Amino acid sequence: MSKIGTFYSKEEMKTYDVEEGAVTINKGLSRPHGDPVETATFENQVDEENFLIPGTNERSIKLAAAGEIATHINMYDPEFSGKVPTESAAAGEFEPRFVAAAKLKSGEQLMPLAPDNVEIKAGDKLEIKDPKLGLDKTLETTDVAISWDDVPANTGGYILAEVSGPIRVKASPVIPEPTTYAVSVTVTDGTDPVEGAVVTLIDRDDSTKSFTGTSGSAGGCTINAEAGTYIVIAEAETFADYTSSTNLVVDDDETLAVVLTT
To answer: Is the pTM of this model over 0.85?
Structure first.
């Protein structure tokens, strides 16, 4: 029996279908005898001692996701109640597994601790770092547990915590969009505007990063580019391909004049 299981009675455990998405059947050979073996993995697989939320179907449950509030925990791996799939299949094309899970309740409880936890002191607030791994220290103040233990970093295992019910799952970090600057481009043949020229800014240090615009009837376009140093190339029908002789440095809104020749 898991350590967590000692805090939940049989009466507190209820059986749920598990929503895990598509199933993939992996076929191989055992060692050392080479007997055929099959294993099933799921798109959103639930294992033992995972943190869960209600599913979308009647009496169903699923793995909590980043930013959600976990309401349940299961003690053991889910099981198949009926026919075990022998081929990979989408959700709904096979009978789901079931699992016994308990609603997170108030009180002192041993909870799984993430294996890469930071140093934790008694009284620190805890959230679910990963619904498949366990808790870790947090600066959040709502839907959290409180540590009763001093735990060194990278200890893992279990931690005694004061739980008040549901526990938040750490939100995914917000990655800010990079700042871009407007590069106002004018393409001419030295006298008249050139329509339909494709102008590309290629990052000098990373050729996989580029920004492109196409000139309109007045020969102009605006290219929104991140800060950097760029090689400028341009192509247009009846004109020779253009490559800038000097690099374009973008660290603010810029203007760029491109003159094409035949």
So the answer is: no
